[in-house]
Amino acid sequence: MRHGREGSALGLFDRLFGDRTSEAQLLYNAAVAKGREPHWYVEGAVPDTVDGRFDMITAIVAVIMLRLEDDPDGAAPNARLAECFVADMDGQMRELGIGDVVVGKKIGRLMSLLGGRLGAYRDGLAGGSLDEALVRNLYRGVAPGNEAVVHVAKRLAALRADLDQVTIPALLEGRLP
Asked: What ranges do the domains of the chain cover?
């Protein structure tokens, strides 16, 4: 069994077009670190499980991607960030023992999940309330309590606002607010 990107569709793209994913790796690493901050799981009551951590990291990545899509120079970094996300999830699934055929199917589902969450968080931020999107996507339909949802909503909205003050080069260096 092959591991890593060389056996994946991403590995094929790397061979054809060159691996530029590393351009966003520091940003992705910073997003993962932010998604693992304890307050999400304590005050925010995000389940401290594999699924809960995945959902929280996905929320952070989505908020960063929303920042990048608002900048004319953000398209390439946005694509690279998505590639880092997929490569990491690919590796995580393989470490859990999921085989090549299943990983390929799950990667397509992951991209669909990320796209859906981008839309939900975009709409929630534009409408002034992330609560519904968070209950559906982060808490998987089971709201933990109003204080927890408010904590996460406020922190994600603040992150999105603070990201506007960070340049794309600084983001690519992994400097998150």
From this structure: 11-173
